[in-house]
Structures are given as C-alpha cells and as structure tokens.
UniProtKB/TrEMBL annotation:
The chain crosses the membrane at residues 6-30, 42-64, 70-99, 111-130, 136-156, 176-200, 250-271, 278-294. GO terms for molecular function: calcium channel activity; calcium, potassium:sodium antiporter activity. It is found in: Membrane. The keyword tRNA processing does not apply. This is Sodium:calcium antiporter. One of its GO terms (cellular component) is plasma membrane. It comes from the Archaea. The lineage of its organism: Archaea, Methanobacteriati, Methanobacteriota, Methanomada group, Methanopyri. It comes from Methanopyrus kandleri. Its main location: membrane. The keyword Membrane applies. GO terms for biological process: intracellular calcium ion homeostasis.
C-alpha cells in the first residue's frame, strides 16, 4: 500500500471510530447518569489516549533508543496543549459561523480542575527533570500515580450529567442495549487504535525517508498521528455544543499524559533531558498557565485557544 493510500485509509478509520465512539460514550454516560466531567476527562480521554500511550511503552520494552520513548512521552502534552487547543478554538468558531452557537465561547464547568492538576503534575516533572538523582525520579513517579488517582476521584464528584444523547440505543430489554453499546465501544476504540497505528506507521516511514532523528520523529510526528482521536472526538462534540466533553477529552488526556506515561519514563529510562527536551516540558506549562489565567478572568473563547497553537514549534525552533 502506498503512503498516500495508507494515510487515507487510516484517516477514514479514525473518522468512523471517532463518530462511533463519541455517540456511544454519550449514550453510556447518559444511561448510567455519569458526571460529564468524568465522562469527558476520564473515559473519553483515557480511551482515546491509548495509541500514543502505547508508543513509549512499546519502545521501552522493545529496547529502542531512549529518544523514541522520551519523545513520545513529552510530545503528547506538547501537542494537546497547543495544536489540539487550537483546533478546538477553530471548531468553536466554525460552530458559531454555522449558527450553532450564540457566541464563540466555551462553556465548561471543570476546566479549572483539569488545569490545576496538569500544572501541579507537570511542574513536578520539570523540577525532577533538572536532576539525574534516580531516587528522586522514583519518588516523583509514585507521586504522579497518586495524583492521577486523586484527580479521577474528584472527577466523579463533578456535577452535571451528560444530556440526552444524539443516538438512542433503548431497546425492550436493557441488557441487549448494554451489550450493543459495549460492542460499539470496543469496535470504535479498535478503529481508533488501528487508524492511529496505520497513520503513525505511515508518518514513521515518511520520516525515515527524510532522515529525521528519533526524538524529533517521536515528539513531532508520532503525536500528530496518535493524537488525532482526541482532536476528532472534540471537534464532533464542539459542533454539537457539548463543551464539557469536548474540552475534557483534551485536558483530561493532558492530565493522564502528564502523570502515567511520565511516571513510566521516570522509572524505566535514564530520563536525562537536554535543553530541547526541557523546552518541550516548559511550553505546555506556559500554554496551560495562559489558558488558566485567561479563563479565570474572561472565560475561554476561540481566540485564546487558537493563539496557543503557535507555541507548538517553539522547542524545536529555539533549541
């Protein structure tokens, strides 16, 4: 299969998987009265974060150079805090221009919760990355695991539940509806993983032809492919006006990526970061500080979300 055909087929699988996943998650959350914050920032975020989470784990197990694993770990928060936010902002603007919104602003009740946990976690990551003292790496890894558990517990306490889903699976027998939802959920995740894997493989092959170094490929190109599920799911939810799910799908993934994969990296790699890698940690922190402070004064709108996208190439331009 040619690279163009592989990319097209993979993108088609991602689109279909994202559409099926968003509708199934909406129905499950509505059926079981789950908080929208928990649904968007945990269920949707972790499920669609599986492809990029597997990249560094596989790289470590398979014995690839550490640059591949570290690049994949640090590339995900960089991509989510900049490009994914920018795509979300443009999606909100598009929904406004299409007449689906009265104003191009984002209505979400738990952005502050996600932002605070990400800032705490990634500040710890930045601090511990300044030392080669391995016991400190182990200690911070344990703290990151605990921090994520605390975060999930707080998500369960968020208020609003998911509204009426777009697609109904109600049947005469609720068990049949539940089984059908489970099939849809597994099938959609399989499509997302397969699509992301195919896209990532095509990107890797292209990068090899260009002769790029492992860290650059992993940090820049691989996340572009593996983060597509979050972006597509969020675009669909933004267009439907379900901002808690849309934004939570990205910010929840950021909290996850800043804790679990980083903890794995701290435990199983040397985690010796140079100036470029440290800049890759600093940019997501700066982007989230900007969004958090702006949201506290003005709320989130499409302009500030789109603006942070320009920070994406900074670590590779300045280092």
């Amino acid at each position: 299969m040619t690279l163009i055909a592989q990319i097209a087929a993979s993108f088609g699988a991602l689109l279909l998987g994202a559409w099926l996943f968003t509708n199934t998650v909406e129905w499950i959350s509505y059926r079981f009265k789950l908080p929208s914050g928990f649904t968007g920032s945990f269920i949707a975020a972790v499920a669609t974060a599986l492809p990029e989470t597997l990249v560094p784990i596989v790289a470590i197990i398979a014995g690839y150079r550490e640059g591949v694993a570290v690049g994949a770990i640090l590339g995900a928060p960089l991509m989510l805090s900049t490009v994914a936010m920018g795509i979300g902002g443009l999606s909100v603007l598009a929904a406004y221009l299409m007449g689906r919104r009265r104003r191009p602003v984002i209505k979400t009740s738990h952005f502050s919760l996600d932002a605070r946990h990400f800032l705490v976690a990634y500040s710890l990551v930045l601090a511990v990355s300044l030392t080669d003292f391995k016991p400190a790496h182990f200690a911070v890894a344990a703290v990151l695991f605990l921090l994520y558990l605390v975060y999930v517990r707080r998500l369960l306490r968020t208020g609003d539940v998911v509204e009426q889903p777009s697609i109904e699976l109600e049947m005469a027998h609720p068990v049949l509806a539940g089984l059908l939802a489970a099939v849809f959920l597994v099938g959609s995740v399989a499509l997302l993983v397969a699509g992301a894997h195919g896209f990532a493989d095509a990107v890797e092959r292209l990068a090899e032809r260009l002769g790029a170094d492992p860290f650059t490929v992993s940090c820049l190109l691989a996340p572009i492919a593996t983060e597509l599920p979050e972006k597509l799911n969020s675009v669909i939810w933004y267009l439907k006006g379900r901002d808690d799910l849309a934004l939570g799908n990205v910010t929840g993934a950021m909290v996850f990526q800043a804790t679990f994969p980083v903890a794995v990296g701290l435990l199983f790699t040397s985690w010796r970061l140079g100036s470029r890698e440290l800049a890759t940690v600093t940019v997501p922190l700066a982007a989230m500080v900007l969004l958090y402070l702006y949201s506290r004064r003005n709320g989130l709108d499409w302009k500030v979300m789109s603006a942070v996208a320009v920070l994406y190439p900074v670590p590779f331009v300045l280092t």
